[in-house]
Amino acid sequence: MVHELTRDQARRIVVRAQLLDADRPGDVVEVAEQLGYIKIDPTAVIAPCEHTTLWTRIGWSYEPGQLHKSVEDDRLLFEYDGTFRPTSLLPLMLPAMRRGPRHEKTRQWLEANDAFRKDVLARLRAEGPMTADGIPDTAAVVADSADGWYGPNQVPRMLEVLARQGVVAVAGRSGRTRVWDIAERVFPQSLPEYPEDEAVRMLAERRLQAAGIAKQNSPWTPVREAGEPARVEGSKWKWRVDPEALARVDEEVDGRVAFLNPYDGMLFDRPRLREVFDFDYVLEQFKPKAQRVYGYFAHPILMGDRFVGLLDAEIDKKEGVLHVNAVHELIPFEPEEMDMVRAEIDDLAQWLGIPLG
Prior knowledge:
The protein is an alpha+beta fold. The chain has 13 helices and 13 strands.
């Protein structure tokens, strides 16, 4: 059976799956379990992505220390590949991680640097946890750094390759600097084991849970055959919908205003944003200033189940205030809608602990 959904229903499914309706979650772990991951990004025009993402869901009661506790003390979340993920996903990820590296160039580099790999692991076993700058670079072969992500020091690259294999892990952070250790001292022991095909299937189901509804063959949200087939009004795409989300599709959804960090996972699948929300979002961070329309790091404004504008705001660290440069209206606001946006800006400033400038 193929389920027939209106665009309104599809939008409501996505908004609820992303915890952006009025029924707010209670804590950091609940958010991570539903979303699957929380992106880490240091760009703090307003606040780093991981903290904005959680504030957008939880609201005023969220404090950054709650994330730190969940990751470093309780170990209910773990850091992996630029994200925080719920530890419940780790057993589903490990089978694929252990097969890495995926790319042949990385595999060749790792093989050529086997002695270096052993040096890094020996140092961590003996002295970890530690930051990358505490580990000597004994690489025999230097990887191509044309992509600009790495400098000449091969230690950070080796640590990331080993982390993707599940051999080492981020034990915590000192400021924004990662602290590394052997994975067995970071990850919980006695994790359940799954065959790789079963783990792949379960991961696809978790992705669909976070998405609510996704294009069946999307490279941005690879849900494979998870869930049930669906059609969305006015769309030629083949969709998959989460059965639990589908069961609640006709329940009343109370909307609210939400400011989304540009790296928020809700915005990751740009084709789905266009197809379901009719929202064509372009991050202007890397555009020359003269070509920007909405601002360097404008946060999309979700109102209910519609993207209605973008907030161009930034913290002035010298003055200690939150400056609102502009509220760009994609759809002209009614007076009460502008009041709702202003109230959310006030809440944002209060959460940051600084006045509006």
